[in-house]
Amino acid sequence: MDFWKVGFLGLLCAASVFATGAVELGRHQPTERISGSAGDVLEDDPVGRLKVFVYELPSKYNKKILQKDPRCLTHMFAAEIFMHRFLLSSPVRTLNPEEADWFYTPVYTTCDLTPNGLPLPFKSPRMMRSAIQLISSNWPYWNRTEGADHFFVTPHDFGACFHYQEEKAIERGILPLLQRATLVQTFGQRNHVCLKEGSITIPPYAPPQKMHAHLIPDKTPRSIFVYFRGLFYDVGNDPEGGYYARGARAAVWENFKNNPLFDISTEHPTTYYEDMQRAVFCLCPLGWAPWSPRLVEAVIFGCIPVIIADDIVLPFADAIPWEEIGVFVDEKDVPQLDTILTSIPPEVILRKQRLLANPSMKQAMLFPQPAQPGDAFHQVLNGLARKLPHEKSVFLKAGEKVLNWTAGPVGDLKPW
Ligand SMILES: *[C@@H]1O[C@H](CO)[C@@H](O)[C@H](O)[C@H]1NC(C)=O
Ligand SMILES: *[C@@H]1O[C@H](CO)[C@@H](O)[C@H](O)[C@H]1NC(C)=O
Questions:
Q1: Atom 6 of ligand 2, nearest CA residue
Q2: Which family is it part of (predicted)?
Q3: pLDDT at position 288
């Protein structure tokens, strides 16, 4: 008992040193440049490095769908709509497909929401197939590569596997017609059938104005050590907590619900965004995908993200050195989270805070209207530009066919 108390006090002291130290130093020191594995690329200007042709599709593939449900503009998969709008007025857009490096098909496959606002992916495969059929018969460019110089935005839970249940998504696999295309998606997990090589992982959409409205003065002390708000159990589908976020959230709750270093709860306070700006560490138990807005919020509010998600592929991971910015904790190590976080040296914390303070880091996480240099739209374009030139081998010989138009579940072959 006594031993426990002493250890406990020790942790508390360490925590407050970290917190105030971070305030005094972190907030007044210059920010640090972000250099990813692809070099210093976050501030790159994609203009002049690639040209994108935007197919013109009948409005039933995009605008009409949005008219039916304007909530699609604010849910976390809205990047699919904003990316379209951005490209239409972007200087990288070309109206001459002959000079295009990349082809983009504006099809809003996540904009079919339940009354509760959850996207239903059941029609998505047929809709996507219909759009591809259309572009491949009206323009010669799809057949030239069977999609290898085309990109699609597919921000579903499991990307182009088009199902929200992992088991079903794995069973389906990536839509066969998209197997050669580049997918821009929020889903990112290594060695998973729903993430193919060469995909671009993007952050989920989080409303920038809403977050900016809650900024508090820079000098506010970070007096909370660890912060998290969200569900620990998916009571309806998974009361035992083994499946939801692969048990990581349940483990956080069971181990730390009574630990004063941990400010964790399911209640979502009105001061949520302000609280993140008062915290040193923000937990991101992402389960199997970075589509939870937690990560974006942590970055915007300068709270070091503690990423609990084995094998995750985080947004723009070739441009952002997430290992240096965040803290990665293996799912199996969640019970030791307190020791892991309290033993990180203050200078390491300060460096992470400096990297997070870099405006280009925050910019890269957002899809603002209108777009701004270095934002997530630009990072997608930078990612596409880095893939150029296309290998000669992706251009098929006359009459050569690789894709199988009748592969996949028969239900997907029905007209849309
Ligand atoms: C592309 O190939 C398909 C057959 O796979 C064909 O039906 C279609 O007409 C071709 N498109 C063009 C523009 O030639
Ligand atoms: C295409 O897929 C269908 C359905 O899986 C299969 O029956 C057919 O043999 C495949 N065609 C080729 C050429 O592989």
A1: 407
A2: Belongs to the glycosyltransferase 47 family.
A3: 56
- Extract the tokens encoding 156: 């579903």
92-99 LR contacts (CB < 8 Å, sep 24+): 92/46, 92/47, 92/49, 92/50, 92/51, 92/52, 92/381, 93/51, 93/52, 93/53, 93/54, 94/51, 94/52, 94/53, 95/53, 96/53, 97/53, 97/139, 97/141, 99/51
Express each pLDDT in 235-285 by its tens digit: 777 677 677 777 889 999 999 999 999 999 999 999 999 999 999 999 998
pTM: 0.90
Give yes or no for residue 401 CB within 6 A of ligand 2: no
137 Cβ inside 6 Å of ligand 1: yes
Band of the pLDDT at 165, cuts 50, 70, 90?
confident
Instruction: Confirm or reject: Cβ of 402 under 6 Å from ligand 1.
Output: no
Report the sign of the C-alpha dihedral through residues 189, 193, 195, 197, in that order.
Answer: positive
For the chain, the domains span 12-38+207-363, 52-205+370-413
Q: Averaged over 284-298, what is the pLDDT?
A: 80
**CATH class of segment(s) 12-38+207-363:** alpha beta
For the cut 60, the answer to whether the pLDDT of residue 379 exceeds it is yes
Nearest CA to ligand 1 atom 9: 137
Q: Which amino acid does the sequence have at 4?
A: W
Three-class secondary structure of residue 368 per DSSP: coil
pLDDT, residue 23, reads 36
Ligand 2: atom nearest CA of 407 is 2
Q: Which atom of ligand 1 is nearest to the CA of 142?
A: 1
pLDDT tens figures, 381-395: 999 999 999 999 999
